[in-house]
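Handout, section B. The chain below has 107 residues.
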Amino acid sequence: MPALACLEDKDDRLVVVNANTAQRNALMPEYYGGLQGALALAGREARTTSVILCGKGGFAQGRSLAHQMDVERDAMAAALASPEAAEGIDAFLSKRAPDFGKPRTRS
């Protein structure tokens, strides 16, 4: 039986791949074991900036890791351009509590 969890070391990030394609990438104890191993390795390795979870086949969003990274980048850019983000960043830089009731625009 092939491994249901595969760990890919991508230098600054670890990718835990769910390979349970027979059950449409249903989460199994072996996958959680692989995830725990990746988190432990990330805790020991200062170079690791993130642990990424994905699945084989077309069952986990059906897109490649590269495509999902592009989607994540675009979502972060949109979130950081929001009035709420501007207020949070301004409050942090001004060393004050944020007031999300009256969002500001970024200056």
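Note. The chain has a mean pLDDT of 82. Compare this with the example in section A.
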